[in-house]
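hey so u asked for the seq, here:
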Amino acid sequence: MKNTIAVLAVSSLLAFSACKKTENTAVADKTEASQPEKFTVDSVKVSDSSKIADSLTVSFTSKLLVFPALKDRKLLDSIYFQNKGIKDFSKNGLQAYLESDKNKYFKSVKNDSKDWISGSYAQDWYTNSHMNLVSNENDYMHISYLWSSYEGGAHDNYGFSERVFDLKKNKKLELKDITSMPKAKLESILMKNINTIHSGTSDNGGDVKNSDMLLVEVIPATDNFYFDQKNLYFHYSPYEITAFAAGDIVIPVSWEELKGTLNTEFKERMKIK
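ran it, structure tokens below
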């Protein structure tokens, strides 16, 4: 009888331990599942060239960032706004997209440049595009997009796009999310600050002011902006507001100049006094 009681006691203890272990495992699994995926950044790149004819060689280079932790489709579509038709945002999916994009580019140049190919002198054409993560602070992620190309003519062309994404709200940040300042007043500040950051352009007489190369009477307050702890910056590509010789132009607007118009949530997240 005593042996029977002992066996039952041991069996009960083992059953209790197994049950407890199962509960602990379930709690651990639940805790692990509730942890958000760590924010990481990777990249994919394709660089290749093709000899279209004896007179023409074309090169293709493109780099895309990869964000494994980002799952929101609308946010991802906005991040890859220059790359239409992406269905798979994984590293393998983006690599495959770039390979397809490269092949389409080579094919289009071959089909669209038959008249030029018959020319008598050789040239090298190219197209480049790059995504670069500039910063990710206070859940505001700033990505800079650069493209450049040459397909005949006097010189190559290039341009920039700046985009800031609110990772808390899964959306691209708009100017209205930062300031309520009327557009006309903001544009007057841009005109006033046009020479704050020198473009580096010079001629025989020395440095040339940005304002001396303006092609517009009003500098538009566009969505091509980014910011840091001191300023809001507007970035303009060649020909957008100035002559090509001026290059790209960056115009800062200080938080002090925007005082009284800053969005409360933005101001708190950026810790602007």
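The radius of gyration is 28 Å. The chain has a mean pLDDT of 88.
lmk if thats what u needed
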